[in-house]
Amino acid sequence: MEIQPRKSRPGITAALSYADAPWFDALLRRLIRQSAIERILIAYNDGDAYPHDKCEWIPAGSLVAGETLSTVIEKTQTKYLLILPFCADLELGPRALRRLLEAAEICQAGMLYADYLEGHTPSPAAPAGNGVPPARKRGKKDANPALREHPVNDYQPGSLRDDFDFGPLMLFSMDAIRTALKRYGALSPFTHAGLYDLRLRVATDATLFHLRESLATVIRPEPAATDAPAADECEAWTDEGETNGGDPASAPFAYCDPRQQDRQREMESAATTHLKRLGAWLRPRFRSVVPTSQAFPVEASVVIPVRNRKKTIADAVRSALSQEADFPFNVLCIDNHSTDGTTAVLEKLAKADPRVIPLVPARLDLGIGGCWNEALRAEACGRFAVQLDSDDVYSGPDTLRKIVQCFREGDVAMVIGAYTIVDERGNILPPGLIAHREWTDDNGRNNALRINGLGAPRAFQTALARQIGFLNVSYGEDYAIALRLTRDYRIGRIYENLYLCRRWSGNSDSALTVAQINRHDAFKDTLRTLEIMARRQMNPRPAVPVPGREGGRGYPGYGSPACRSGAPS
């Protein structure tokens, strides 16, 4: 589609997908009443059209599809395009659109988005006294529970996650859209990644501006309580949470869901093309890991940073000691000044088995990454350092052997396995097995900038990890060093279940608040921003994408050997 320059009217065209829900007509009526909205474009497959002069129904697929968005852009005659990225019971705040337009005219951003309020309607099956806050009246028929603020993050160059939460309102400048399409070609015919592709194109040269104000209210159904799945439900994925087409927060593991292969291929293709535009895409050329002449006391060390885990540390250590290997190994427990009795537990375990080596750092200001540095620098550290969190366990006695074998067979700087999420009693929790089969040898290092995690357990060439070092933080330290290593070296992958990641009420990622999730996501976005800058410096002559031939080669198939430094077969 050829995008011709045109003079647009100062108003707004709104675009959303039809939802077969009782609140949808009410949402349309609210949008119609907004004087700033001149036109409403509704993408639909079926359903009864709500007749109104402002509304135009587009017989198409989801609004996240590239062809649908191209049609929306072609039909938009106004200066701004307001996209509702996920369809929900939405109510605009007082003067919300006026505020968005005012800010858009001032900052001249390519896209604006804002914080929002959210609440949940009580589940029909919820028993009395379930803790649902008292409802307040909204109209004559509906009732809203108490609302809470839902802030979102500032956009950075490293905000490549396809699950970035923009909230329910994305106000695009049509000038920015037309400039991006003229410069980088028409939108790709993606089924799932069209909106992701659009915002990446716009973000290449324009600003995405975050208004730190709640400009809308979203009401969601109260999620129904579910029991833990049975052991054979190890890949109990959810179909919800299509990024930019559903709730972005509902699918933290969508990128490694084997049922979302097509979607992930598209997302990886869009992200890969964007990295090429930025000059941050790396070709599949890797440095060899130079063998070290340094002598190590053992072949492998299981590294367990720990603070105040009296309840779980013994299980973790015994899991490490139970490993069956044809090489010597030890267990380095970096006790970060525990005060709950963890130290006494470690001392008892060390007396019973000399392979257990408790280490207490001299410093008091260490995070998990700082504790890792203490382990790597220790004289007792082996040739390979293998991760085990203080509240997790290995899945069986052969985990360590398989990891070391992967190092020995491949020229790799790091080995990453697959893990299963379980509760305290070992019952498998959704989504179950996290195998990260989205990884490929030719494009994994680039696709790693799109996703928030690479898997577990993680293991390192000790000599190389000593040179690079961990960040002294307690979240994302593993992701940071993995990104740094993928910049230069191959990564070995083991797609078998090697690790049980236990979820319980006391661990660090249990029941996180929106603010905590935002801090974590913003930190990883910053890591990606810095990594993009570093990779651009490695590309004096960046690759130029060819329209229609962009993209990575992710998700080629499943069923690979246990350990591959390359793509799954």
Can you give a write-up of this model?
Mean pLDDT is 85; it is low at 125-144, 225-250 and 545-569. 28% of the residues lie in helices and 22% in strands. The protein has 569 residues and is of the alpha/beta class. It has helices at 24-32, 66-75, 96-107, 174-184, 194-205, 261-278, 313-321, 342-352, 368-377, 399-409, 444-447, 462-468, 477-486, 514-537; strands spanning 9-17, 37-44, 55-59, 78-83, 89-92, 111-121, 136-138, 142-144, 148-150, 170-173, 208-221, 300-306, 329-335, 356-359, 384-387, 393-394, 414-422, 428-434, 458-461, 491-502, 563-564. The protein has two domains: 9-122 and 134-225, Spore Coat Polysaccharide Biosynthesis Protein SpsA, Chain A, CATH 3.90.550; 300-564, Spore Coat Polysaccharide Biosynthesis Protein SpsA, Chain A. The protein contains 14 helices and 21 strands. Helix 2 packs across helix 5 (194-205). Strands 12, 13, 14, 15, 16, 17, 18, 19, 20 and 21 form a ten-stranded mixed β-sheet that branches. The protein is elongated and about 80 Å long.
